[in-house]
Amino acid sequence: MCSSHSTTVFLSPSSLIGNLCTARSTCCPAPLQAQTFITISFKANILQASDARSHIQSLGRAMRVANRSSRPGLTTSDRVFPGVLVPKCAASKGETSGDGGFQWRKRSVTPGLRQSSSPPSSSSSSSKKSQNGKESGKSSPPKGSAGGPRRQGKGASRPVGTFKGRTISADRVASSIPRSSSLDIGEGEGKDSSVNGSLEKRKKPPKIREQVRITSPISKDPKIAILGGGMSGLICALTLQEKGIRSTLFDTGKHGLGGRMGTRHVAQINGDQLAFDHAAQYFTATDPKFKKLVNQWMEEGAVREWKGVVGTLEMGGKFTELQSSMKYIATNGMRLFADHLVSKRELIDVVRPCWISRVKELDGRWHLSEYENRQGEFDIVIIAHNGKCANRLLGPIGVPLVAKQMKRLELSSIWALMAAFDQPLPTPISPSGNEQIEGAFVAGIDSLSWMGNNTAKLHASQNSWPYCWTFFSTAKYGKKNKVPQESIPTVRAARVKKEMLQGVEKALGLEEGSLPAPLYMKVQLWGAANPVNSPHVPCIFDAHGRVGICGDWLLGSNLEAAALSGMAMANHISAFCERKGLDPEEFSVGLEDVLLPVGGHDIGQFDGQEIAAKAADTQLLTAV
Question: How many structural domains comprise the chain?
Answer without folding.
Answer: 3
